[in-house]
């Protein structure tokens, strides 16, 4: 019975999917932008600013730019004000909207005393079981503190066939996520001349729940005074928004047929 379940689902994934979702009429219709943290979960702290505030400003500017550049694409923000949106609801918003891209905006930081590390890096989700995840990873810390997070986390299958199916399902979006992340990093570093910390795969819970190509981009180190000034400045935010916008436009040309 379990074998039949796997066989049937594989048939749907690899036979039906290419002739429906990835048909020649495929177009990007919806993009969800997620401003990291918010409300009582402020994220990283710089000398004078909080991650939640910087992320929100960049997310709103990015949304406005995309609406201008892509008038036929629906742009959705997971938050537009300083509120705390539950971590699991962020990807849920994208899933419910059947989004084609999910992009989460964050600021990086280093432990106290390290003020020199700088640069940008963009993450894509890597599937691992919850107890195998790097619980010390900063972007997961606030989630791990939620004592009910395991009850809300649906990507922790216990049955072998469920693990196989989830792995296959995620692989459908892995390559596209890496492509988008690479384009974002390329624009940051080749155009904006930022330090390139690369594209990385991590067990980020929020990305694991997103059923579409998805990335989490760290726009700079808020713990570095120079970069804190940059990511807070109108000029710096304009460059960041332009880099992400150009990456999305380039990605759109690659995946649309």
Question: Can you describe what's shown?
Answer:
- By secondary structure, this protein is of the alpha/beta class.
- Helix content is 49%, strand content 15%.
- It contains nine helices and six strands.
- The protein has a six-stranded mixed beta sheet with strand order 2-1-3-6-4-5, with helices on both faces.
- Strand 1 (30-35), helix 2 and strand 2 form a beta-alpha-beta unit.
- Helix 2 (51-69) crosses helix 9 (234-255).
- The longest helix is centred in the C-terminal third of the chain and has 32 residues, at 160-191.
- Mean pLDDT is 83; it is low at 14-23, 129-136 and 147-157.
Largest beta-sheet details: 6 strands, mixed
Q: State the distance separating the first and last CA atoms.
A: 38 Å
Give the uncertain stretches in residue-range form: 14-23, 129-136, 147-157
Total E-strand runs? 6
Q: Roughly how much helix do the residues carry, as a percent range?
A: 40-55%
Question: What is the compact description of this entry?
Answer:
This protein is of the alpha/beta class and 257 residues long.
